[in-house]
């Protein structure tokens, strides 16, 4: 494993030294190096520095230019505009740097120098309930963040905070007590753990849910029995807990089948639902009350905030314990914070949860800070996502106004994608099995990519036509770029192989592709600090686009310039393929070899 500094990082270092050479007090000034259309890079930091040093920016730029070393990295530098520096990197430096990347398993991407422990709360469906598009977003974004952070060397702990507790379970368990065979499995569906089992589990749970709800709404006596059942559940009554556990287990069969379809790995030990914090709730409240962080108000235990008020101007508290003694969502989340910092020793806490819960998390984090469960050293962040919209621009619903079943969406995406890949697949002689496998990877990839390429907190329209389109900002487009590069590598003749030739001058499309390939690690580093996977998505889309231009402008196997150029281009093709594969992999998207 050899980490390879990017050209832009090396350049930045040189410009920084030149800035300090020109103005000694410039120590620590950001040279503001950016990619540019005029040269490869532009450094804009001179302007601010000139202002501070009361110097003429053009003259200062000339001084900095003079202080820049002429070496193997910088081919040309000039002053432009009011005092910008335009920098051109030497072709040989680009190729040599890329060669070092191809040599490395991690494509030269460095590991974090000081990795911490990040606990990510994501993929949190609710027991006995169908998964919907909101659960899709949390799962897809959380999984990508987990993969990216792990790749940077961070220790990542997943926590799936499933909804497995609350008053509803009194109703469900009581119904099970009175109808003990509702969850029995037919003997012939002996459990292959596949999609059919998952669907069967969900329909059993749905039936149970609907039936118990009907009785609950119609029968006052049942309602009362259900209420008492909640008390038994909270008191840890054995029989009640066992029946509750059956509901959880049945739901997990369903969850796993959906996650399997989504190609997301969920480990049983990482599922720590709301119930997992039951033992801590009383203590959490006591600690808050004893320390004065929370106070009793009309019987409820509340935390107040100066800056959080309702429409009527009255303060809106976080209710940690209700007046009837019950605990809700806040007490559970506060206990989870204690567990994650105190027991798991997290240095970062991430919550991949619907943007509409922003206020809840703001109050929980602030409370945890006051209580000392979150110290200065711990980074805590709500990673919000927006709503998935239908084509009409309103929250995605079926025609009868029900929320759309996640599985139906995924199935439809796969069937659309299969139709798209079948046409080309048949032309290149793929078997039916290969087409089916590609259809799954393309369809699931399309759903994930549409989600991940949307910036955090924003809504997006679920439009399968757009998602599986071969043109435009889609995963299919990127997957095709990958497959095309693999096809070129397979077609190379015996004497043709990917070998870097730094001595060769690069064509414009080669330089543009090369400079972007070199920036892979920088793009990942940005995601790792911003927790914004869409930055990686847009990096990859751009890479695929630059590769397409290169492919159109620079013949690879038939390059007329000679065998060295063929090999050097094959080398660029191979590095592109590996970067696309690694990058999509970090987003949880597969790369079929032949499409
Ligand atoms: N189960 C909840 C839902 O479906 C999301 C849980 C979010 N995580 C948390 N720690 N509160 O909306």
Task: Please give a structural write-up.
Among the domains are: 7-89, Gyrase A, domain 2, CATH 3.30.1360; 166-267, no CATH class. Strand 10, helix 12 (358-371) and strand 11 form a beta-alpha-beta unit. 53% of the residues lie in helices and 10% in strands. The chain is globular, with a radius of gyration of 29 Å. With 595 residues, it is of the alpha/beta class. It has helices at 7-22, 45-53, 57-67, 91-102, 133-151, 168-178, 195-218, 220-235, 238-262, 278-290, 329-343, 358-371, 406-427, 432-452, 464-467, 475-491, 508-518, 520-530, 534-553, 563-586; strands spanning 33-35, 41-43, 74-80, 84-89, 117-121, 155-159, 295-297, 300-303, 318-321, 348-354, 379-385, 388-389, 460-461. Strands 1-2-4-3 form a 4-stranded antiparallel β-sheet. Strands 6-5-10-11 form a 4-stranded parallel β-sheet, with helices on both faces. Strands 7-8-9 form a 3-stranded antiparallel β-sheet. It contains 20 helices and 13 strands. Bound molecules: arginine. The site of arginine (ARG) has 9 residues, from helix 11 and strand 10.
Key terms:
595 residues, alpha/beta, Gyrase A, domain 2, four-stranded antiparallel sheet, four-stranded parallel sheet, globular, binds arginine
Strand sequence of the main sheet, in spatial order?
1-2-4-3
Strand residue percentage: 5-15%
What class would the helix/strand composition place it in? alpha/beta
Characterize the largest beta sheet: strand count, sense, and whether it forms a barrel: 4 strands, antiparallel
Shape label: globular
Q: Whole-number radius of gyration?
A: 29 Å
Level of helix content? 40-55%
Number of strands: 13
User: Which ligands does the model contain, each kind named once?
Assistant: arginine
Distance between the termini: 32 Å
State the helix count. 20
Mean pLDDT: 94
Low-confidence stretches: none
């Amino acid at each position: 494993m050899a980490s390879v500094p990017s050209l832009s990082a090396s350049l930045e270092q040189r410009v920084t030294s030149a800035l300090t050479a020109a103005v000694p007090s410039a120590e620590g000034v950001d040279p503001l190096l950016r990619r540019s259309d005029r040269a490869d890079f532009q450094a804009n930091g001179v302007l601010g520095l000139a202002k501070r040093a009361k110097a003429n920016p053009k003259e200062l730029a000339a001084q900095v230019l003079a202080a820049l070393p002429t070496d193997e990295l910088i081919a040309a530098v000039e002053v432009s505009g009011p005092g910008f520096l335009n920098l051109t990197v030497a072709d040989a430096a680009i190729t040599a740097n890329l060669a070092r990347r191809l040599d490395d398993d991690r494509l030269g991407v460095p590991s974090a120098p000081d990795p911490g422990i990040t606990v990510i709360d994501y993929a949190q469906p609710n027991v006995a309930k169908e998964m919907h598009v909101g659960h899709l977003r949390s799962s897809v974004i959380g999984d990508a963040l987990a993969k990216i952070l792990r790749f940077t060397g961070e220790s990542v702990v997943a926590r799936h905070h499933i909804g497995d507790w609350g008053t509803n379970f009194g109703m469900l368990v009581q119904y099970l007590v009175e109808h003990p065979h509702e969850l029995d499995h037919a003997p012939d569906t002996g459990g292959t753990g596949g999609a059919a089992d998952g669907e069967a589990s969900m329909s059993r749970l749905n039936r149970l849910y609907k039936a118990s709800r009907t009785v609950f709404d119609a029968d006052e006596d049942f309602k009362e029995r259900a209420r008492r059942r909640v008390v038994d559940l909270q008191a840890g009554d054995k029989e009640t807990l066992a029946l509750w556990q059956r509901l959880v287990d049945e739901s997990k069969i369903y969850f796993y089948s959906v996650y399997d379809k989504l190609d997301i790995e969920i480990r049983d030990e990482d599922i720590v639902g709301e119930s997992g914090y039951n033992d801590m709730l009383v203590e959490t409240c006591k600690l808050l009350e004893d320390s004065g962080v929370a106070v009793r108000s009309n019987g409820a235990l509340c935390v107040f905030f100066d800056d959080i008020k309702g429409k009527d101007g009255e303060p809106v508290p976080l209710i940690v314990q209700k007046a009837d003694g019950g605990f809700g969502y806040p007490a559970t989340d506060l206990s989870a914070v204690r567990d994650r910092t105190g027991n798991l020793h997290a240095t970062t806490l991430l919550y991949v949860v619907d943007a509409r819960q922003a206020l809840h998390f703001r109050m929980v984090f602030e409370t945890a800070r006051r209580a000392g469960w979150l110290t200065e050293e711990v980074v805590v962040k709500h990673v919000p996502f927006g709503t998935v919209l239908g084509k009409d621009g309103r929250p995605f619903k079926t025609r009868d106004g029900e929320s759309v079943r996640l599985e139906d969406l995924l199935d439809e995406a796969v069937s659309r994608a299969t139709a798209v890949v079948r046409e080309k697949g048949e032309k290149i002689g793929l078997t039916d099995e290969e087409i089916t496998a590609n259809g799954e990877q393309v369809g699931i990839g399309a759903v994930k990519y549409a989600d991940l390429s949307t910036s955090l907190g924003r809504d997006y329209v679920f439009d399968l036509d757009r998602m599986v389109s071969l043109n435009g900002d889609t995963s299919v487009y990127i997957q095709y770029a990958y497959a095309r590069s693999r096809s070129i590598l397979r077609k190379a003749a015996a004497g043709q192989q990917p070998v870097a030739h730094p001595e060769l001058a690069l064509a414009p499309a080669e330089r543009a592709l090369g400079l972007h390939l070199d920036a892979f690690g920088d793009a990942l580093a940005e995601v790792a600090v911003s927790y914004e996977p869409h930055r990686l998505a847009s990096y990859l889309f751009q890479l695929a686009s630059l590769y397409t231009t290169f492919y159109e402008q620079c013949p690879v196997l038939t390059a007329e310039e000679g065998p060295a150029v063929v090999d050097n281009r094959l080398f660029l093709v191979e590095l592109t393929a590996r970067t696309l594969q690694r990058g999509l992999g970090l987003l949880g998207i597969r790369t079929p070899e032949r499409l």
